[in-house]
Write a structure and sequence with these properties.
Layout lengths: L10 E5 L9 E4 L2 E5 L8 E5 L3 E5 L10 E5 L4 E3 L6 E7 L9 E6 L2
Antiparallel strand pairs: 1-4, 2-3, 3-4, 5-9, 6-7, 6-8, 8-9
Length: 108
């Protein structure tokens, strides 16, 4: 059988278990997906699983090209892995302690 292209790389279909807002970060096993639109629970949408995104971060500085995690409780990126965090990706620009966001290449 020949390979049949089904979907553009960097997206996955996801059936929402609750309402999701555009920009929400959703845990997908060991990866994350980012919603590009609002959706009601029970509806299916495409989540982005690749690309660079500017996301809210905690108050600590984050260096360039370091692992970044998503704090699922505080809903911010952090360079500190721990309970309640999931891998988000790699920072592609430094973020100072006072910065409110960090640029992250997700799932990388």
């Amino acid at each position: 059988m020949k390979a049949v292209r089904r979907k553009e790389t960097g997206t996955v279909d996801y059936t929402a278990t609750a309402d999701i807002a555009s920009g929400d970060i959703i845990k997908l096993g060991s990866r994350v997906g980012i919603s590009l639109s609002d959706v009601k629970g029970g509806e299916t949408i495409s989540l982005r699983t690749a690309g660079q995104f500017e996301v809210a971060k905690d108050t600590a500085a984050i260096g360039v090209y370091v692992a970044v995690y998503w704090d699922t409780t505080a809903k911010v990126a952090t360079a500190t892995s721990g309970t309640g965090t999931i891998p988000l990706g790699t920072s592609t620009a430094p973020a100072l302690a006072g910065d409110g966001t960090v640029l992250v290449d997700i799932n990388v």
